[in-house]
Every structure is written in C-alpha cells, then in structure tokens.
C-alpha cells in the first residue's frame, strides 16, 4: 500500500471485513486517506499491525475500538504497541458511541454499509477532527535499572560477583541520570542500595517513551526497563472542542470589525482587520462558534453584513433605527475594545442579545434537561422552527437505532489454524517466562534483604547524599544572594547618578545653592505630558497631579479631539507648550477657554527623567505672544461678524 502525502501524514480508516477479533483470524478493510486520495486493501490482523508499525500513520480511525481488541487488556496492549506518532481514534464518540451512519450524515461524509465504505468514512471523519482519541497511558514514564542476572549463592567469589553487579547498576543509573539532566527532563529517582552499589534505581520521568533519549536494554549484568505509566482506565479525549452557538455583531467598511457574544450574553471575542478578506473573517468566526444570529448597528442591514448572514444561514437583527453613539458607548462601557469599529460591532451583538433575551428564556423553560438548550434556541431563532418541532426532531434522533452490519466469519484454512495454535503457544510460553523471572527476582530480594550487616553502610551513604544535596542547595542560595546583591548595587549606583543630575538641574549654573533654594532665581516647573490623549493626561495627573496654574509640555500635540482638549482645559493650566501642531478642534477649544498655547522651541527647558524646569521670562514671553495673537484673532472675528451682520441687513432691506 502506498502512502500519499497531501496531508502531513496519512490516516488509516479500519473496519472488520470478515471474522471477529474474539474468534478466529479476522480480516480488515483498510483505507489510507491523505486528504485527497485513497488507497484500499484487505489485510489480516497481523498484517494490519505490521502495516501500522511500518507506515506510522497519524491516526488509526475506527467506528469501534473493540473491533481491534477483544477486551480492555488487549486494547491496552494494542495502544502500547502503536508507534509514538500514531493515535487511535474512535470516530463515533466516547464510551457510548453513536452509529457510524448518523455521525457521517451529520458531518456530510459519504457512507455505505460495505466494510470498505465504512473504513473510508472513518478515515474522512478523523481527518475532519471528528471523534475521540483513545488512550490508556499518561505522559509519565517509569525507567527501572536493575540486575540482569541473579547473584547466586554465598561465598567469597559470590561476594565479589555481587559487588561487581551492584556497582554496574549504580554506574548505569548515574549515566541515565546525567542523560536526563542533559535533556532537561524532569524526573524523580528512588534507589535501593545494596552491597557495593545499587540493587535497582527507578526513575519516574515526566516524558513519553519516545522523548527519552535511550531505549530498553538487557546487556550483561544490567537490565534497563522502560514502561509508560497507565491511566486508571481507558480514556477518551475529543479531537475537536465543542463549538457553541453564538451571536455575531459586524461593522463593515475599510476596517471590518466582528464581535462574538454567547447566548448568555457573555462577550467571547472582538476583532478588527483592514486586510483580511471575507473568507478569513468567516474562518475566524467558525473557530469561535456557530453563528445563528447576525447583527448590525444600522437599519437596513448593510450588504456586506447580509452576505455574512447568508453564508451562515443565520437569522438577522437590526435596530428600529440606527444606534446612536452615546447608546453604544453606554452599552459597551464595561467591555474592552481597541477602536470605534470594534465598539460598533460589539454594541450590535449586545443589543441583539438584549432584544432576544426574553425569547431565549421562554424557549429555555420549555427544554427538558436531557436536550441541548442552546441547540434548541439556535434552531428556533435561526431556522424559524417552533420549539415543539425542534424538540420532536431531537427526540426522534436520540431514539433512532441503526443496525450495525454483521460480518460473517469465514472458515479457517489448515495453515491459518496452525498459525493460530502456534501464536497461542508462544503467548503461553512468554507468560510462563515472565512468571519465572518474577520468581527469581523475588528470591533475590529476599536474600539481599537478609544482609543486615550492610545497613549501617547504606545509612551512611544516605546521610552523605543528604549532605551533598544540602551543600548544593546552599551553593544555589549563595549564588542567588550574590545576584541580588549585585542588582542592589547597580540600582544604588543608578540612583546616585540620578541624584547628581537632579542637583545639577536644581543649581542651573548658580554657584550659590542656598540662594537658589530661597528665590528659585526666575525658574518655573514644567509638567510633561507624553501625548495629547485622554490616557496620557490621566497618567500625568496620577503621577504628579495637574492643578490650576501649571505650565504643561505636550511632547506630541497632534491628533487630539474636542473631548481630549476639554479634559486638558479642565485643569486650567497657565500655558501649554507644545511640540508639533494642534488639530483645529483642539486649538479652538483651548482658545475658547483662554488657555495660552505656544511652541516649546521658544522656551529653554531642562529635563531629568520625568522632571523639567524652564525660565520664567521665556514662559512669560510665550504667554504675552499668545495674548497678542489672541487679541488679533478676536478683532478679526469681530470684524467678520460685523461684516456678516451688515451683509444680512442689506439683504433683508433689499440692498
């Protein structure tokens, strides 16, 4: 069977073709699916296992995992033998699977009752993230290093032999510890100390076996066993997260904004984009839920929003008249958004929810506990069905039972029966071998447990190990304290430099420092504001307080609107020094409030970090210049008003 590559890796769909896993020699229909093309074959159980091991598919998909294993123990063995990169998926659900035909129909996957058609349906469903991953193991692995042979009976030679084996176990355990440290893997280790070294060392590693950089071995005197830890039972984990029904608000335009709100009114997500096309917006929405109500903030619904509504086959909502800005601001006051477009989309979704909330509540009261309340609401609102019709439909779906196709087992040939008998015999021999090994290990443990004369040495070794750990801990603590000390010294040096700069700024070239403290020598403090925005003004107010009569410095005066200018005017500054140009609206607001504004370039300002001072005479010059310009502007306004009144009077009196 060839492996095709349109997907990252191929997916195997598997279904019983003939026979039964609990009976004799089942065969399987196997479909390899790469996202576009399929390969089909019928193979035996043994060939299926070899095929999975050789090809390493991303997923082995089936409608019932117990078609691949006779019971839970056999299923655990099947999962243990899967390649590390392969996942077993039951596409019909978890512990209580649905009929494959119903799942395929729900997701629009072609389905037929022939085994090969069912295998293909399973592969296509798994490729669409339908189904549940089946697992019996955690992400923790147990690595045991122990003796590879018995130490035998007593005697001088036996003592040397025992000491050599235990020393070899200790060396191998330390090699493994060093390897795990080198790979930065988290682990815990328990050591059983014996004469001359270790009887065994057990590492509990927070990683899967394929992430551990060594394999199980049995060489000479040493045996290394690697076993992934089991879960409490067979677990099923859904491949795809549930997609809830949602209300979507859309604000179209050069910048498209979308907001997603749950049936309960909770804001789930908000997004805006200038570059994404319709397909990208639809994909973003699909990832966040199933839209059943599309809302706009204007009436009638814009064509772009209508196209989104048709794409999801959802109901539409528009207000009786266009939503006013103050209503949108009030409704979204407790939500976060980045721009006005997101605010409008969010307001549309929230007002749509508010308008339909009573209807949602009435529908929910009629829905029994066993029925999905959100699905009923979505179908009633989105599809226009009655509550009774939806409940009847869902109840009928739950009560439907489909017959699973039965596969007639074929009779085994003489050669197949012989193979079956030999396989059973091999399994019995393996089981007996493991029992004998267990007996030998138990006897060895009893023998060495009686060597009480070594207990003192073991206790001493443990004490030294504790001392070494404590020394390492204290060394780490000392390193940490040295780092803190160095950081504190650097911070102290930085503050000292800052203090010197502040002193230099305060003196401002005056040799008599006391003189400066008393008279300030014609200086005035300046309070900087980074940008002409509400956030920057509030930040400056919190940091050093904005009060009446302040001299303010706008580092970037561009972009402010009326609201921002009015907020600045509320502080009643003495003068506003600016870098950059003011907007016409902001300049008009500040002029109306008689707040002098002038270029910062005409004032000599000295700054250290957040602090600044300027010369009083420079500030006075800027204020005086502004008053002259303001007087001229008022004269021009009065002249224009008089000219206008004269013109109106002439018009009214016929020239």
Summary tags:
flat; alpha/beta; 6-stranded mixed beta sheet
Question: What does it look like?
Answer:
There is one protein chain. The protein is an alpha/beta fold. The chain has 18 helices and 21 strands. The strands form three sheets. Strands 1, 2, 3, 4, 5, 6, 7, 8, 9 and 10 form a ten-stranded mixed sheet that branches. Strands 19-18-17-16-21-20 form a six-stranded mixed sheet, with helices on both faces. Strands 13-12-11-14-15 form a five-stranded mixed sheet. Strand 9 and strand 10 (222-238) form a beta hairpin. The termini are far apart. The model is unreliable at 1-6, 401-410 and 508-519 (pLDDT under 50).
Shape: flat
How many beta strands in the DSSP annotation? 21
Helix share of residues?
Answer: 40-55%
Q: How many helices does DSSP assign?
A: 18
Integer average pLDDT:
83
* C-alpha-based Rg, rounded: 40 Å
β-sheet strand percentage: 15-25%
The separation of the N and C termini measures: 101 Å
The biggest beta sheet reads: 10 strands, mixed
Quaternary arrangement of the chains shown? single chain
Uncertain regions spanning at least 5 consecutive residues = 1-6, 401-410, 508-519
Classification by helices and strands: alpha/beta
């Amino acid at each position: 069977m060839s492996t095709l590559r349109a997907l990252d890796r191929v997916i195997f769909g598997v279904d019983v073709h003939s026979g039964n896993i609990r009976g004799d020699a089942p065969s399987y229909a196997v479909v390899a699916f790469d996202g576009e093309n399929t390969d089909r074959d019928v193979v035996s159980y043994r060939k299926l296992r070899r095929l999975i091991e050789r090809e390493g598919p991303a997923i082995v998909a089936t409608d019932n995992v117990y078609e691949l294993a006779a019971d839970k123990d056999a299923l655990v063995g099947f999962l243990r033998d899967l390649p590390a990169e392969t996942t077993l998926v039951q596409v019909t659900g978890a512990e209580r699977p649905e009929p494959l035909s119903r799942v395929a129909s729900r997701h629009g996957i072609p389905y037929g009752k022939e085994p090969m058609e069912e295998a293909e349906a399973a592969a296509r469903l798994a490729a669409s993230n339908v189904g549940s991953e089946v697992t019996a193991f955690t992400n923790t692995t147990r690595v045991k290093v122990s003796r590879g042979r018995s130490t035998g009976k007593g005697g001088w030679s036996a003592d040397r032999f025992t000491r050599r084996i235990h020393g070899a176990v200790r060396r191998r355990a330390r090699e493994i510890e060093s390897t795990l440290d080198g790979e930065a893997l988290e682990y815990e280790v328990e050591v059983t100390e014996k004469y001359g070294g270790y009887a065994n060392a057990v590492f509990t590693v927070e990683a899967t076996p394929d992430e551990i950089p060594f394999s199980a071995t049995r060489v000479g005197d040493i045996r290394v066993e690697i076993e992934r830890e089991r879960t409490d039972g067979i677990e099923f984990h859904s491949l795809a997260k549930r997609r809830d029904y949602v209300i979507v608000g859309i604000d179209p335009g050069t910048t498209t904004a979308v907001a997603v709100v749950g049936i309960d009114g909770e804001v789930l997500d908000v997004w805006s984009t200038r570059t994404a096309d319709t397909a990208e917006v639809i994909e973003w929405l699909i990832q966040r839920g199933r839209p059943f109500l599309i809302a706009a903030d204007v009436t009638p619904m814009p064509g772009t929003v209508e196209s989104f509504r048709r794409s999801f086959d959802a109901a539409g909502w528009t207000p009786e008249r266009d939503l006013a800005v103050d209503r949108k601001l009030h409704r979204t006051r407790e939500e976060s958004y980045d721009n006005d477009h997101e605010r409008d989309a969010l307001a549309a979704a929230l007002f749509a929810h508010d308008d339909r909330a009573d209807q949602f509540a009435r529908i929910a009261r009629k829905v029994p506990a066993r029925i999905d309340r959100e699905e009923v609401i979505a179908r009633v609102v989105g599809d226009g069905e009655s509550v009774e019709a939806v409940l009847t439909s869902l109840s009928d779906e739950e009560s439907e039972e489909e017959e699973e196709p039965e596969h007639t087992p074929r009779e085994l040939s003489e050669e197949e029966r012989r193979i079956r008998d030999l396989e059973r015999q091999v399994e019995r021999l393996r089981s007996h071998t493991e029992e004998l090994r267990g007996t030998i290990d138990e006897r060895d443990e009893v023998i060495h447990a009686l060597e009480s004369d070594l207990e003192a040495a073991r206790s001493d070794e443990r004490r030294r190990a504790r001392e070494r750990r404590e020394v390492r801990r204290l060394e780490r603590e000392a390193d940490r304290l040295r780092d803190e000390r160095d950081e504190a010294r650097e911070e102290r040096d930085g503050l000292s430099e800052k203090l010197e700069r502040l002193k230099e700024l305060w003196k401002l070239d005056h040799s008599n420092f006391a003189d400066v403290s008393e008279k300030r020598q014609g200086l005035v403090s300046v309070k900087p504001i980074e940008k002409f925005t509400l956030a920057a003004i509030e930040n400056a107010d919190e940091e050093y307080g904005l009060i009446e009569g302040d001299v303010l410095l706008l580092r970037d005066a561009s972009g402010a609107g009326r609201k921002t200018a009015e907020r600045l005017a509320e502080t009643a500054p003495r003068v506003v020094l600016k870098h950059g140009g003011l907007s016409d609206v902001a300049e008009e607001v500040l002029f109306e409030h008689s707040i002098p504004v002038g270029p910062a370039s005409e004032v000599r300002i000295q700054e250290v970090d957040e602090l600044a001072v300027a010369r009083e005479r420079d500030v006075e010059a800027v204020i005086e210049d502004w008053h002259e310009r303001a007087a001229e502007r008022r004269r021009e306004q009065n002249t224009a008003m008089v000219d206008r009144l004269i013109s109106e009077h002439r018009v009214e009196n016929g020239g």
